[in-house]
User: Fold this.
Amino acid sequence: MTNPQTRTVDAPGATVTYDVYAAQSAEPALLLIGSPMDASGFAALAAQFPDRTVVTYDPRGTGRSPRSAAGEATPEQHADDLHRVVSALGGGPVDVFGSSGGAVNGLALVARHPERVRTLVAHEPPAAALLPDRTAAFAAIRDIRDTYQRDGFGPAMAKFIALTMLKGPVPADQAERPGPGAADFGLPAEDDGRRDDPLLAQNIVTCTHYEPDFAALAAAATRIVVAVGAESEGELAYRGGVAVAERLGTAAVTVPGNHGAYLPAEYGMGGDPAGFAVALRKILDAS
Assistant:
């Protein structure tokens, strides 16, 4: 696979950096997107598609995409950023694989700019707004953000990991329960004073509280496939994916692995990019 060309596009309140792995192909470009994970997390998966032009990017406020706007970033902002990237590529339509917050932003992109996307594969969107236990989930998520603002990264991330690993509905008193110790997950217990973490400061609430515009999604010509991991059953993002698929009138497709199945081994999530790419290619080739 060729080395990527790094480019930027200006957006209100941010400069968005993206990488283009160019290939001679009749297929649309394939965008691999996360949030707040940046392009580096998709390099191993991108390498599995040497026959297609692949594009990865750093969401606003993450990695190489500085932002000047204060406050939390919204799925709508991310969708408009992606629209600008696709426009800079020639306008599309493109295929999109979005995972976690990237899946949420992909749904927002299709709702706002459906002409830009041929196929969206939305992998485990953490759509807490669609769950029957949304009140408890929302309270637990806001507690994570508040813990970050009060105590810093380690204690907040420990609560986040515990919530994402939880199987089944979020208990009504989850937000009131003492969180696990930061050291239990190898995280720093001391507060370094920073409050600029892309997940905990910018995206955790807006992403999970976002409710897709299902009327717009139904009207779009875009093919939307919701994917969930075989090892994630019962977790919040898995349940969110199932809920999105149900609202779309489809069934979620089961793919190998867990929430980070496409990540290389060094990310510590037991990922298998090559195996995951086989499943992703099968979905894309069915379009």
Observations:
- Residues 5-127+210-285 form a domain with the Rossmann fold fold (CATH 3.40.50.1820).
- The mean pLDDT is 95.
- Strands lie at 5-11, 14-21, 30-33, 54-58, 94-99, 117-123, 223-229, 253-255.
- The CA atoms of residues 33 and 136 lie 28 Å apart.
